[in-house]
Amino acid sequence: MRHLILVIVLASLLGLSGCGGSMGSTSFLHPGFDFGFIEQVGVVPFENLSADQSGGARATRYFTTALLSAEAFDVVEPGEVSRALEKQGLISTAQLTEEQAISLGRELRVQGLFLGSMSESARLRSGSKNVTVVTVNIRLVETETGTTVWSVTNTEDSSSFWSNLFGTNQKSPSEVTRRCIDGCLDSLLD
Q: Which residue, among 154, 158, 156, has the nearest Cα to 169 in the 3D structure?
């Protein structure tokens, strides 16, 4: 009987070992849109709404790399996107109008623009531990009509089952950001 209880406890622990960290995700995928239409995209630098001064730039760089790695789209070079934004006098890119998205898409010769923001990147106190929490919002706007065809908000934290159980080190802000963005892309590419 003891062996059976031990086996059940160990199986439960192993089953929970991958749990933790994900705090939630909400996504939208346009039901009538043909994503095969989008071949080339631009990634507009993410807006930083967090207190972490490098959060937006870190999220933009990782998102661009993850998008290239997925090989789902051809991605315009970041310098070309910056040049086009500057040419059009666009400073705040999180709230592009439909006309601005269409114009920017025409300038870059892309069928889609990824726009995003890092709305939270903070170390919060949780009991006796500090936990890093990251929230990212990303959307894909198709540039023929300026319509949002995909949007996601995802929140991740640095805690895990094992770090909580044994008090081990938690993940860095960069690791939490990567995991958060990977979760965002999973909702589009799966």
A: 158
| Architecture per CATH, 35-189 | 3-Layer(aba) Sandwich (3.40)
Alpha-helical regions (H) of 29-108: 55-70, 78-87, 98-108
Phi, psi dihedral angles at 179 (to 5 degrees): -65, -35
Decide: helix, strand or coil at residue 59.
helix
Query: Do the strands 112-126 and 47-48 form a parallel or antiparallel pair, or are they unpaired?
Result: parallel
Q: pLDDT tens-digit profile of 37-92?
A: 999 999 999 998 877 788 888 899 999 999 999 999 999 999 999 999 999 888 76
- pTM greater than 0.70 (yes/no): yes
User: From residue 48, how far is each of 30, 59, 60, 110, 118 by CA, in Å?
Assistant: 26, 9, 10, 24, 5
Q: How far is CA 169 from the centre of its chain?
A: 23
